[in-house]
Write a structure and sequence with these properties.
Layout: E1 2-12, E2 15-26, E3 29-34, H1 41-49, E4 56-61, E5 64-65, H2 70-74, E6 77-78, H3 92-102, H4 111-117, H5 133-147, E7 151-155, H6 163-177, E8 183-188, E9 197-202
């Protein structure tokens, strides 16, 4: 589904090389990007999302090139920086509406089960800046699963979540693992228990 060809990336100051001529293929299902601190897990997700430009290389989703058709490429994936404050003045309903306007495959029918499963009802009328880190992550996750995007990029999806929410997110990921036309790429330190993986990208310790 997502193909990366010969990606090079280094941080300029100080110069730290993260990827050197890296190629990979994301298949339908759940792919784990694992590695130790500073090994480039989040950086790789940003590169795949197209929000961080690679020094060189090619990225394609279902044959659509990021370089040649950037808007069409990005419309096929869901990515949000977990620590962003861009949407802080929105309530969850307003944020979901913004996501719905971006993704033509957004499934509004999934929202209520996702909101209930993640325990977001008490926060429905609060602006996002009022939410805890875990609750904001739940909003991002609900939007991701409802978006209908072909590829979901999820950075440490279980961080700051309570145990019932972790179990619920694992159920959503396991459901994706059984879908032929959808992929989730999760960056984390270890594989989530109970989730079937289609692949592992190990960036080392």
């Amino acid at each position: 589904m997502l193909i990366a060809e010969q990606l090079w990336f280094r941080y300029p100051n100080p110069q730290v090389e993260i990827l050197t001529n890296w190629s990979g293929e994301i298949r339908p299902g759940v792919t784990l990007v694992q590695g130790g601190d500073g090994r480039g897990k989040s950086t790789l997700l940003r590169l795949l999302a197209g929000t961080l430009p690679a020094d060189s290389g090619q990225l394609r989703i279902n044959g659509v090139s990021l370089k040649e058709q950037p808007d069409a490429y990005r419309q096929q994936l869901f990515w949000i920086e977990p620590r962003t404050d861009t949407f802080d003045q929105l309530t969850p309903p307003q944020f979901f509406q913004a996501v719905r306007s971006r993704y033509s495959w957004f499934d509004a029918g999934l929202l209520n089960p996702l909101i209930e499963g993640l325990g977001l009802e008490p926060h429905w009328d609060k602006k996002l800046f009022m939410l805890s880190t875990g609750s904001k992550r739940k909003v991002w996750l609900a939007a991701a699963f409802a978006s209908g995007a072909a590829v979901l990029l999820l950075d440490e999806p279980f961080a700051a979540l309570d145990a019932p929410s972790i179990a619920f997110v694992k159920e959503q990921l396991q459901a994706i693992s059984a879908q032929a036309g959808r992929a989730a790429v999760i960056a984390d330190y270890a594989a989530p228990s109970g989730v079937t993986l289609a692949g592992v990208i190990d960036l080392g310790d």
